[in-house]
Amino acid sequence: MRALILTSALATLSAPIWAAAADSVNADEIIRKFAAKESEFSEARGNYTYRQSLKLEELDPGGNPTGGKWEEIDDIIFTPDGKRIEKVVYAPVMNLQHIGLSKEDIDDLHNVQPFVLTSDEVPNYDINYLGKEKIDEIDCYLFSVKPKKMLPGKRYFEGQAWVDDHDLQIVKTYGKGVGLQKRNADQQFPKFETYREQIDGKYWFPTYTHADDTLHFKDMSQRIRLVVKYQDYKRFEGRSTIKYGETLDPKAPAKK
């Protein structure tokens, strides 16, 4: 089991440890390999159940809650016939007072904040190698990621991604969701950090997203804090598309 230590990792934004300029790596080859691993992970994660809990709070400029908030807990599960669904477990009435949620906000929550950069998505981004950086005890390759071209109705990630130099998978991202806005739209999106943890000994799963940012609208500014936790990952046993370890014959006698 390998994991980032969140309490200390939150400080890395202010003091990155850059690699020497002489550091020579084949960035294109690393990108190709980690994108292939991300594609495998994306498929594997589709075979897992988990609980997603979120809390969005409106804050005053000093960082104190003002009462406006949105909380929700959802279980990502499978129906008996194998269909993957999202079941709401806890959802008190939303009482955000100064901001609202858009389709783009929900899209970012589901697809951008737990960012996965698969081989199919690589052509959509400019990806530049920035150097090597250690996060806690994890040696990482650091890349900047920015969409080449944005299409209407699609959300993208813009920021930085840390790739474990051993497993060649993303272990942390920092950035924001971006996309084309409609004319006269006044939408702002927070910068966030997402951390992953090695759950099954093979893949790194998103486990924690944090944002504390001030959104500057045309007529006002609002500080917000968002915390999203992804917990209780369990592989769904009703399907056999993803298997790890040895395959057991159900007719074979049990091992003593």
Could you state the order of secondary-structure elements as H and E? HHEEEHEEEEEEE
Q: Biggest sheet, in brief?
A: 10 strands, antiparallel
Strand order of the largest sheet: 3-2-1-10-9-8-7-6-5-4
CATH class label: Mainly Beta
Figure out the total of helices.
3
Inertia-based shape: globular
List unreliable stretches of 5+ residues: 5-22, 239-256
CATH topology: outer membrane lipoprotein receptor (LolB), chain A
- What's the total count of β strands? 10
- Helicity, in percent? 10-25%
| Cα Rg | 20 Å
Beta strand %? 35-45%
Task: Describe the overall structure.
The protein is mainly beta. It has one domain: outer membrane lipoprotein receptor (LolB), chain A, CATH 2.50.20. It contains three helices and ten strands. The protein has helices spanning 6-9, 27-45, 103-112; strands at 48-59, 65-78, 84-90, 125-135, 138-147, 156-164, 170-178, 192-198, 204-216, 221-235. Strands 3-2-1-10-9-8-7-6-5-4 form a ten-stranded antiparallel β-sheet, covered by helices on one side. Strand 8 (192-198) and strand 9 form a beta hairpin. It starts with 5 loop residues before the first helix and ends in a 21-residue tail after the last strand.
